[in-house]
Recover the amino acids of this structure.
């Protein structure tokens, strides 16, 4: 299972507020199959099989265009570990264990 951090930035919206676009992206993610996602204050974390993650990223990249954005910039970071199963929760737990928390 892979983990991706995705930030979608609509450009040319006529406003500095992006929360309505972020809310729409979360609605789009609810419709995606095979993934788990978590909204953070700066990005969205998507977990699942790589093909499902790429499908979800494409869907959320396209969404702002349907809401009249003129340009969209999407940044993606992918952690694809194949020697053992992992998750965002497992990665955080591993660090917390090392910190004695």
């Amino acid at each position: 299972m892979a983990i991706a951090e995705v930030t979608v930035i609509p450009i040319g919206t006529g406003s500095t507020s992006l929360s309505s676009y972020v809310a729409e992206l979360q609605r789009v993610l609810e419709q995606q199959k095979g993934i788990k996602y978590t909204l953070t204050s700066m990005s969205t974390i998507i977990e699942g099989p790589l093909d499902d993650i790429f499908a979800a990223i494409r869907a959320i990249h396209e969404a702002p265009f349907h809401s009249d954005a003129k340009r969209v910039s999407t940044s993606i970071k992918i952690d694809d570990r194949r020697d053992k199963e992992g998750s965002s929760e497992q990665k955080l737990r591993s660090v917390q264990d090392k910190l004695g928390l």
